[in-house]
């Protein structure tokens, strides 16, 4: 029987472990904490079946000026940390040129098309249907001009990729979401998405399914991973584990481990924050307030407000300015009630400059496999890219072309 250590038990690592197991591998899933307690817990919980085009870096003067002058709440940066991001940022800029972004989108769309079906199979098998809502999520627009642009964009994505969206008038939005105090110029409802009321809970349910099917979950530190006579070994709380293959699925922490093996990974770390609010009413589906760059997602813990991207150095102190602005804007829309926590949560989106996840064999280490860099959509993509990697490792014909995601691409 073939054997693998999967390092990192977020949505990406757990998705990989399940797909390797389905192909007959003996798998040990190793994490320093419990499954699904980091980035895969703190996100907005949207399984984004509509996200066929990855987020490009804005290149138009007006948007860049709004970011530079702090007028946009989508992106915030810490000026002192900018030099730390300069290399990946310049590459992100280069890859965001229209023709390159179009090529990245063609590859990305093949994965996104598999995201909901792959989750659906696992949700069913894990008995986790109570955590999941179908019906999509909504994007609120505040002015008729913004609404018109958004409807045109939705039509473009429908024509090119078959993504389904419904345009909701302010009255239709009010009927769908009675908790809203105002409904602006209406909303776009992306119908192909699903959403989850406890993202970390869904990862934990998938990890429980992995255990139930005979998989092993262990506590261990990534730094103890190293080559052995048999392949790869790691120390865990229950003793050493060896396997012929090891998969690095450490999300935003992957570059730290891989530096020890001589790989410099140009990851762009986009920090995000969340806090829950407990008011008298909640929303039926997640709502993105486009003008203010945040999402309100109804969760088991309350209404979770999540922010856009902050470019900060990994060790920088938290500066939740975007969250404060988001909460102020959200108060115009719903009665937020009281905060669920005093201090906000923060985590990091592991973004690659070419906007595509890294999936495949490490260039210089036989038996070492890389699986990270899912950026804004890792919660969506973990099971689909887990399948792609497991198929590649098993020598099967992959269900979507794997070449665009290979490690070492330029
Ligand atoms: C605010 C916000 C909102 C988001 N909203 C969405 C959304 O709605 N939909 C969506 O698809 N995506 C969303 N994302 C992105 C998504 O959350 C990430 O892409 C995804 O969670 C990455 O998953 P992962 O498994 O790669 O990483 P993680 O979930 O971070 O898992 C990595 C694991 O590695 C472990 N680890 C780290 N270091 C070590 C070590 N040294 N030793 C052992 N173990 C270690 C950690 O404990 C962790 O369990 C959002 C992100 C943020 C920040």
From TrEMBL:
| Residue intervals of the FAD dependent oxidoreductase domain | 4-391
Q: Name one GO molecular function term.
A: oxidoreductase activity
Name the record gives this protein: Amino acid dehydrogenase
Is this entry keyworded Nucleotide-binding? no
User: What GO cellular component is one of the record's annotations?
Assistant: cytoplasm
Pfam families (UniProt xref): DAO
Species per Swiss-Prot/TrEMBL record: Methylobacterium variabile
Q: Give the matching Gene3D superfamilies.
A: D-Amino Acid Oxidase, subunit A, domain 2 (3.30.9.10), FAD/NAD(P)-binding domain (3.50.50.60)
Recorded superkingdom: Bacteria
Q: What keywords appear on the UniProt entry? A: Oxidoreductase
